[in-house]
């Protein structure tokens, strides 16, 4: 595809070149006609061509000038058009990138930007947008998980308080549990069934509490052992979760009508392997997994409390029987009662502590990577998250192994020093820690190694707790790589809101010629020429008011030279949304600006030259008109002189031969015809070598130089040589060579005199 250029500009200048060639050709003809005294007419021009054949080549001068001018100004126009297109394309790309960055600043992380192959900055910003989008999704997921964990923790604390407050009345305890649970999980109806197993022959479930739509329901339902879903749940000792409830199973009734719930969950009240009842919840909303886990934990706490209450009831019953049977042993009874009260308090405290410990342990195991080591570094225990994160399948793979198994070889030296400190009961460690998984991958964590002490203050074991931060660490390293790439590829510096330089990268220091110590003493205004101060003050005012700037500016470097930079000023805000500093990112475009200025100056010069050529053309036409008449008068005189000279040469008794610098014969008189026994028609236009046999080459220096166009001729010296005629006769002659130069044209005239003697 042809490159774009201004056709009118190129054609106009090509015509000027063609006109200049015509003018030069006319000047050549003019002086040629003066020299030969031939009138400058059409017939005279033909005669000049006959005398000087090289004029046939010179006739091409206007065409050559026109072609050269065409391609020269075409190249200039193409270059100018390319520069203009490149600048427009770059400006368009920068505007698109600016709009894209503005959308990202406004929070539109779904903004699209089409990346070009050479757009490194655009590719980096798009990659940054994708990373921000991923981070936002991960942050939302983490926030949701945190909210769920907080919701579960608050709920466990709330129901723990309920269980502690109402553990002396089973019916009230059941009602408070089901009432608060239905409200807390936003359900619609709930019931509690307690196991009645005092009579082994009549084991059944009795509904002790029912609650629906903010109202306490009458609870007297009896469920036989293994009957229905409630009985099945007790029999199997597993949670039953129904998402499709049969129409005839349960109707939730309110003042507005009846409807089937969307899901039902039935959870056994189980402590270890002992079943104490069933908790049934119905809801119009589907339960998520964390709801189910929460209900199961609450059910476990309820079962633990019910077990404690049952123990207390049995204990009270035994005490009553003992008091009736042993009234005579009142002292022993009082002592036993006190012991039982102490035992009850101890049991309650132990149950409470066990509940807290189990809750805490479960929370840690669900949220943290946890392991325990002895003082020698041998693994004693590892939770499921530890195994999953380090890519092991069971505890048997890791228990009894040394801790160095999980540490990279490069990190073992400093880690061994850390472990020695911990083994001696030293300060705990907290910070970033890198482990090695089973497949050799890096696992980054925020870890804590803490000594667990015994009652004597000695160290029993070392507890390890950690949170997986591998993705965040990789993302951080990726961000650092992108920032370093930008710093290495661009001029970068940081300024205070007042314009003082805070920091600058190596490319900034190289571009400005300062070292970092001297550069920090400068402000943005010290780098700007005096003429541009007002402009940079307006720009800086906009930047400090959160209006970014992108464009070209001039700066003064250390040696006083000017440089052009394509710059972007961006604002960095603090936590109070106030401007903390201003980031300066730039690329050196001095060369492009210089080329643009030179192109502009060249265009202006061409326009001046064009005007001068036009004026010269007018003046030339005037002179041509004046000279035309003079040439007409001189052409006749020149023609007469030429004819007279030819006749004089034709009348010479000696042979006269005229050749150009390439040895082509242009004149051959009658004496030469007689001497060489040939005619003009056979010689004129041929090379002079045709008159001299090839066996004479290199035998005579004078003749050899005359015949070879590349050698210097022996001019002005008469030499005696031998020639051979067409009939084969060898003749002894004297030869004199003269040289004539007119402009760039050179001709040689040979005068040959026959000096041979005829013998009779």
What do these coordinates show?
The protein has 760 residues and is α+β, with helices and mostly antiparallel strands. It has five domains: 1-114 and 600-638, no CATH class; 149-362, GAF domain (Beta-Lactamase), CATH 3.30.450.40; 371-468, Beta-Lactamase, CATH 3.30.450.20; 490-588, Beta-Lactamase, CATH 3.30.450; 651-754, Beta-Lactamase (2-Layer Sandwich). It is 49% helix and 22% strand. It has 19 helices and 24 strands. A hairpin with a 5-residue loop joins strand 17 (549-556) and strand 18 (562-573).
What is the name of the CATH architecture of the largest domain? 2-Layer Sandwich
* Total E-strand runs: 24
Cα(first) to Cα(last) distance is 83 Å
Mean pLDDT: 77
Outline the biggest β-sheet: 7 strands, antiparallel
The CATH class of the largest domain is Alpha Beta
Number of individual domains: 5
Low-pLDDT parts are 251-257
**CATH-assigned fold name of the largest domain:** Beta-Lactamase
- Sum up the overall morphology in one term: rod-shaped
Structural class: alpha+beta
Helical stretch tally = 19
Over the alpha carbons, how many angstroms does the gyration radius reach? 56 Å
Percent helix range: 40-55%
Strand content: 15-25%
Provide the CATH superfamily of the largest domain. Answer: GAF domain
């Amino acid at each position: 595809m042809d490159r774009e250029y201004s056709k009118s500009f190129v054609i106009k200048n090509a015509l000027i070149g063609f006109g200049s060639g015509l003018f030069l050709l006319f000047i050549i003809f003019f002086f040629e006609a003066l020299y030969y005294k031939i009138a400058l007419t059409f017939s005279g021009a033909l005669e000049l061509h006959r005398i000087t054949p090289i004029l046939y080549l010179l006739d091409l001068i206007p065409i050559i000038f026109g072609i050269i001018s065409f391609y020269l100004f075409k190249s200039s126009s193409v270059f100018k058009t390319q520069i203009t297109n490149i600048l427009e394309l770059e400006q368009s790309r920068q505007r698109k990138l600016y709009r894209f960055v503005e959308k990202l600043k406004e929070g539109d992380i779904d903004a699209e930007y089409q990346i070009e192959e050479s757009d490194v900055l655009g590719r980096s910003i798009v990659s940054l947008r994708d990373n921000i989008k991923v981070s936002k999704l991960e942050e939302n997921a983490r926030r949701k998980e945190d909210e769920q964990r907080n919701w579960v923790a608050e709920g466990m604390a709330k129901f723990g308080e309920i269980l502690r407050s109402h553990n002396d009345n089973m019916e009230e305890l059941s009602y408070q549990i089901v009432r608060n649970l239905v409200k807390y999980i936003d359900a619609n109806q709930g019931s509690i069934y307690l196991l009645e197993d005092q009579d082994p022959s009549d084991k059944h479930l009795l509904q002790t509490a029912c609650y629906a739509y903010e109202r306490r329901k009458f609870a007297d339902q009896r469920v036989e052992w293994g009957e229905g879903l409630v009985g099945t749940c007790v029999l199997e000792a597993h949670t039953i979760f129904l998402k499709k409830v049969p129409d005839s199973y349960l109707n939730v009734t309110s003042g507005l009508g009846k409807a089937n719930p969307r899901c039902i969950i039935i959870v056994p009240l189980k402590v270890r392997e002992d079943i104490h009842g069933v908790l049934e919840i119905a809801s119009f909303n589907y339960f998520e997994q964390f709801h189910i886990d929460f209900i199961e934990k609450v059910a476990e706490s309820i079962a633990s409390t019910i077990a404690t209450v049952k123990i207390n009831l049995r204990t009270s019953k035994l005490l009553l029987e003992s008091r009736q049977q042993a009234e005579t042993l009142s002292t022993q009874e009082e002592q036993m009662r006190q012991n039982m009260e102490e035992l009850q308090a101890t049991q309650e405290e132990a149950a409470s502590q066990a509940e807290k410990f189990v809750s805490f342990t479960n929370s840690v195991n669900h949220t943290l990577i946890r392991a325990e080591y002895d003082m020698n570094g041998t693994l004693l225990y590892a939770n499921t998250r530890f195994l999953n994160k380090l890519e092991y399948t069971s505890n048997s793979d890791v228990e009894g192994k040394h801790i160095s198994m999980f540490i990279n070889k490069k990190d073992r030296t400093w880690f061994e020093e850390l472990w020695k400190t911990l083994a001696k009961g030293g300060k705990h460690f907290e910070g970033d820690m890198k482990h090695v998984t089973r497949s050799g991958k890096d696992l980054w964590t925020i870890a804590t190694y803490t000594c667990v002490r015994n009652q004597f203050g000695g160290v029993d074991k070392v507890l390890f707790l950690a949170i997986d931060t591998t993705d965040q660490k990789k993302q951080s390293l990726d961000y650092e790589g992108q920032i370093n790439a930008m710093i290495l590829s661009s001029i970068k510096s940081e300024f205070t809101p007042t314009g003082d330089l805070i920091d600058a990268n190596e490319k900034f220091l190289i571009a400005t010629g300062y070292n970092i110590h001297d550069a920090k003493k400068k402000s943005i205004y010290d780098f700007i020429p005096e003429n541009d101060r007002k402009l940079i003050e307006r720009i800086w005012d906009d930047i400090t008011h959160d209006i970014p700037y992108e464009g070209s500016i001039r700066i003064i470097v250390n040696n006083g030279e000017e440089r052009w930079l394509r710059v972007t000023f961006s604002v960095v805000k603090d936590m109070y949304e106030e401007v903390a500093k201003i980031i300066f990112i730039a690329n050196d475009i001095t060369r492009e600006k210089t080329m643009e200025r030179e192109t502009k100056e060249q265009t202006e010069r061409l326009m001046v030259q064009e005007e001068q050529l036009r004026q010269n053309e007018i003046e030339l036409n005037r002179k041509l008109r004046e000279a035309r008449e003079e040439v007409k008068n001189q052409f006749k005189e020149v023609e007469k002189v030429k004819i007279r000279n030819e006749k004089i040469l034709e009348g010479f008794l000696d042979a006269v031969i005229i050749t150009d610098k390439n040895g082509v014969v242009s004149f051959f008189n009658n004496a030469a015809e007689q001497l060489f026994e040939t005619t003009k028609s056979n010689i004129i236009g041929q090379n002079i070598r045709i008159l001299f046999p090839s066996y004479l080459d290199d035998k005579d220096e004078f003749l050899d130089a005359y015949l070879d166009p590349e050698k210097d001729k022996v001019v002005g010296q008469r030499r005696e040589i031998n020639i051979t005629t067409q009939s084969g006769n060898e003749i002894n002659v004297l030869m004199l060579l003269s040289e004539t130069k007119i402009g760039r044209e050179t001709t040689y005239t040979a005068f040959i005199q026959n000096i041979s003697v005829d013998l009779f």
